[in-house]
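Re: [ENG-882] Designed sequences occasionally contain unexpected residues at chain ends

Forwarding the minimal case from QA. Structure tokens:
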């Protein structure tokens, strides 16, 4: 009873936490507000300042739009960051304490899509950039292998950034990156030349394997981009994602050298639309940098055993290499253009490219409008114009309003025999994953003072676990402005939420899980309570009393497909008040 009273009283002090979370305009693609960040460069590639709202003309699908909010943003020497409020023992939040008056910058080092040779070269240049960066440069550092990993949260401390960059650029081989075209080992000159039919079958098999690898790379990379967008969602203002990568095979072009020219092709257009919309809602601009740099076709050695099969193989690989480079660089440009960034390809100046991306991304104009067309589904093209002048504009060129009846999932192109890829909540709840901030919440985690031999009601043991346990109560208070609550004709609002708690060991092995779904039609008085006190809920999960464990808890808005999560060391969980009324950490 003492624990229940304590938790209930704590829940009533939540509104102040959420005040900052709703100050900035929120992008809700397909609804009434659209935010467009525009960078304007002169003929020398330098930012243009002091333009006025009247200088800009904004159109959607060719129709003029009225700008309801206009603001210029310029680079500052030191960004102001919201101070972290004092939190009572056992209280945690996923509120992102990001710069209040400047863009947030993220470095993503992609080893999944980058050959080892290019990783080694990029490492030195990336370290050189961090060492020479302007004092006060604030960055977060991620790496992408088979999963997305946050190595360093936002900081301007050069020592922390150098340590993170050192970890992010550790050379590692991608398990699903196909070999470079023409890089196969030479065959003996005594190998008998196969017949044209056998040659065609061999090349078709190689292409099929490459397509399967590329499909997996696309799914992992798109999933990582979606995950980043959800992580950055709760942060105010623009986010500049500098994506250091060797390739991104979004579309595999038909290969005329194959018996079945379309047997190795695939399309992920609908998945790209979903990713672009998530990035737009979170105001993320991507600056892809091709780590290949200046590159020639690796086919100069015609004596390679691979080419004893005839000149058709040589020409086929030349065509394949050209198509691959066009596809990879075209994809980078497409991703940059669709998000308002810029792609840097065919350059060996990695340090300069990163610096230029951060400079351009820190100087921009924000235009907000409400579309005159409230109904049209499909792609909506955005155009921004300035008076005659030698200007270069970067902004997201449109967004997608999907028809729910025809919406496709990322699994739509996957092998039907393979298991479907994990959903967004499964990805968000992975051990060590970046905590998404689409739903801002705080949670009080309190453990019973006395260990127990029993699990909490509804707990599922995922791995072998033995008592004793500590039963932990998780009390949530979520920002109501982040929850989708559509109105119904009877005056109620539909609320459909899933609360999930997972217990991991220090190696990321899942031990215990708990999931509860709340699907209700809230009456007006309940909605008023939500707005005043936050959306509240409690659940319990057992944590092994001995050993090092982590509790990851999250909320999934099933109507709006928005997620919030936190991860807490079990050692930081508060223990229920004793008879003396005092509370301590575990």
């Amino acid at each position: 009873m003492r624990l229940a009273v304590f938790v209930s009283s704590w829940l009533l002090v939540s509104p102040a936490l959420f005040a900052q979370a709703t100050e900035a305009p929120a992008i809700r693609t397909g609804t009434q507000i659209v935010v467009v960040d525009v960078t304007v460069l002169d003929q020398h590639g330098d930012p243009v300042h002091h333009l006025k709202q009247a200088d800009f003309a904004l159109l959607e699908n060719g129709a003029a739009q009225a700008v309801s909010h206009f603001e210029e943003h310029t680079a500052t020497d030191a960004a102001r960051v919201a101070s972290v409020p004092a939190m009572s023992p056992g209280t945690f939040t996923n509120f992102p304490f990001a710069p209040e008056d400047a863009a947030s910058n993220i470095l993503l080092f992609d080893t999944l899509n980058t050959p080892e040779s290019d990783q080694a070269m990029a490492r030195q240049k990336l370290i050189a950039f961090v060492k020479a960066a302007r004092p006060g440069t604030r960055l977060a550092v991620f790496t992408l292998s088979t999963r997305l990993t946050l190595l360093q949260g936002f900081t301007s401390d050069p020592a922390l950034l150098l340590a993170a960059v050192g970890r992010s650029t550790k050379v590692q081989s991608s398990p699903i990156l196909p070999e470079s075209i023409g890089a196969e080992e030479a065959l003996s000159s005594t190998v008998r030349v196969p017949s044209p039919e056998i040659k065609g079958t061999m090349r078709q098999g190689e292409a099929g394997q490459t397509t399967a690898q590329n499909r997996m790379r696309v799914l992992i990379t798109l999933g990582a981009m979606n995950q980043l967008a959800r992580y950055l969602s709760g942060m105010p203002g623009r986010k500049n994602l500098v994506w250091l990568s060797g390739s991104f095979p979004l579309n595999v072009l038909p290969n005329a050298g194959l018996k079945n020219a379309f047997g190795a092709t695939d399309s992920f257009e609908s998945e790209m639309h979903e990713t672009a919309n998530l990035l737009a809602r979170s105001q993320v601009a991507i600056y892809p940098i091709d780590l290949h740099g200046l590159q020639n076709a690796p086919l100069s050695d015609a004596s390679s055993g691979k080419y004893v099969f005839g000149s058709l193989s040589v020409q086929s690989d030349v065509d394949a290499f050209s198509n691959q480079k066009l596809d990879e660089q075209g994809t980078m440009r497409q991703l940059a253009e669709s998000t308002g960034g810029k792609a840097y390809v065919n350059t060996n100046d990695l340090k300069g490219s990163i610096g230029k991306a951060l400079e351009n991304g820190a100087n921009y104009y924000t235009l907000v409008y409400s579309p005159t067309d409230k109904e049209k589904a499909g792609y909506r093209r955005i155009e921004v114009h300035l008076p005659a002048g030698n200007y270069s504009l970067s902004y997201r060129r449109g967004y997608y309003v999907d028809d729910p009846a025809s919406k496709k999932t990322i699994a739509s192109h996957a092998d039907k025999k393979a298991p479907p890829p994990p959903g967004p909540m499964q990805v968000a709840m992975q051990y060590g994953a970046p905590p998404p901030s689409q739903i801002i919440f705080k949670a009080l985690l309190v453990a019973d003072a006395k260990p127990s031999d029993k699990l909490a009601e509804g707990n599922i043991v995922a791995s072998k676990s033995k008592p004793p346990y500590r039963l932990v109560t998780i009390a949530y208070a979520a920002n109501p402005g982040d929850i989708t609550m559509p109105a119904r004709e009877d005056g109620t609002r539909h609320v459909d939420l899933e609360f999930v708690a997972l217990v991991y060991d220090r190696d990321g092995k899942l031990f215990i899980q708990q999931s509860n779904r709340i699907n209700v039609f809230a009456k007006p008085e309940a909605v008023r309570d939500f707005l005043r006190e936050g959306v509240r809920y409690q659940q319990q999960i057992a944590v092994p009393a001995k050993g090092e464990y982590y509790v990851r808890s999250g909320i999934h808005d099933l109507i709006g497909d928005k997620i919030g999560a936190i991860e807490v060391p079990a050692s930081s969980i508060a223990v229920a008040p004793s008879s003396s009324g005092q509370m301590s950490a575990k």
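QA comment: On inspection the terminal residues look reasonable. The CA atoms of residues 247 and 325 lie 8 Å apart. Proposing we downgrade this to a documentation issue.
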